[in-house]
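MODEL INPUT / OUTPUT PAIR
PAIR INDEX: 1
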Amino acid sequence: MTYPHHITIICLPDQPKCRIDKFITERITEGSYSRSRIKTLIQEGHFSCDGRTLDDPSVSVKPGCSYQLTIPAVIDDIPQAEDIKLDILHEDNDLIIINKPAGLVVHPAPGSRNGTLVNALLHHCGRSLTGIGGVARPGIVHRLDKYTSGVMVAAKSQEAHHGLSTLFAKHRIHRKYEALCWGVPSEMTGTIDAPLGRHSVDRKKQTIRENGRSAITHYRVIKLFPPFGCHIECSLETGRTHQIRVHLTSIGHSIIGDAVYGRPQRVAQMPDKISRQALATIRAFDRQALHASELGFVHPVTKQELEFKAPFPDDLKNLHTILEQAVWERGHTNY
């Protein structure tokens, strides 16, 4: 069998009502898949109905519809230790805080089996880490997107893993992010309360959906670069996948360099208002200009209050400087 493997099931018009995960499990004849495995595949976005992604395994089957389940390739459950340099902000017997660089994937996945943060942690902490929180993602309690930089915590003991997971689940983690965005907001502070769910067509994307999971982002504008940009600080009540990126795009201020949710056409209409060279440099920025700048929580073992900060990395510092210079140039030169 080659992977990814696609299984198509046509639902007959007289099909009785039942849950979709139960229906699919009963009709798969290729291989041996438990209902829990099918449920997980659906929740991870590997399932579609008439070409539209469906990620809720509890919905009822629809007579006459065509369903497709994609079986992804199996990944080795045990990642290998790799000598990858880490920027460590703090470490004790139970946890480690790192300043993740942009470009570093957090845990192994299809297309990124090696060179991840997990591989680096296994080398730094030793093989004992493999038993912390499961062998596939040892020590990981949250993640940052590949091209998002900044502060992350990982567990080194089961007690810390359980405690940190509980803090994240109960939203008792202080997280602050900073982003360089397109456009100038009309409000200097605000709250975006918009539920998120998987995109109906592109399973790798998130989108605002009425039936999605609650997602709340508070933002504050730190600095304006009129008329084309701003520096925004975000704090989270929830931590959904791509939350800040989708929320900021929804209010018309997508993050500079965001190839998935960005809207570069917003500045393509402004060549007369900004230096062409500066505009070209900003538009060529090759990752989302998003940085996890602060992380605070109560240590799950020692109960000590901890707070960690990471300043902008060099690429974001340079981009910030270019935005400032472009504003100055606009005020002193006619193009």
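PAIR INDEX: 2
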Amino acid sequence: MALRDAIQRLTLEHRHYGYRRITALLRREGWCVNAKRVLRITREDNLLCLKKKAYAPATTDSNHGWRVYPNLARRMIPMAPDRLWVADITYIRLERAFVYLAVVLDAYSRKVVGWALADHLAASLALEALDRALAIRRPVPDQLVHHSDRGVQYACGDYARRLEAAGVMPSMSRGGCPYDNAKAESFMKTLKTEEVDGSAYRDLADARRQVGRFIEEVYNRTRLHSALDYLSPMEFEETRLWTALAPPTGATATTTVP
């Protein structure tokens, strides 16, 4: 009965988590349980996670005269932070209007490294998100690829010059291939399902506050990601950084040079 109570508690606390993430949380609490048992109990108690199909209207216009860059990210598997960033824009509904969110994610950890929310789709929206990411992460020049769709916000001269000045290589999805930017699309789906669809924002300031809280405090810090071995993006970066810096087994932290 104690296990069933724990499953009920965690499912109610994390109403959008599926049974695999609930299993990961249970194991963190010390339970020895497999995912099949958790699924059976959640089905018996009608505790399956909430899901809602997302509708995504067009937020970018790829019919423009700016340069379209080749897809450099198609076969990239980043092995460290700040090697591949992915960017995208989506809409968020207010009570009587729409606002728009631009994000930049690190493809290595799925962490949102820059975001901006505004009531317009001008290039300055995407630039604000990019500037935040550059200021926080300070990537090494000529080591980072920035991937996006072919929208005018990312193709325009101001955005291209900002990338060039930072030593960041631009990359764009192929025409008619939405899966080329799958990691960014996956984040947008998570945002809509776990935050936006269950909220009612009064105005732009309210949306910026609540969406910002979800990004910074929930998604980046605590939300378990199946592709990250059920760690949050920040946990994943910190764990991998510690592992990379730790000396080999049997070695000391310092080395004497003969």
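PAIR 2 NOTE: The first strand starts at residue 84 and ends at 93.
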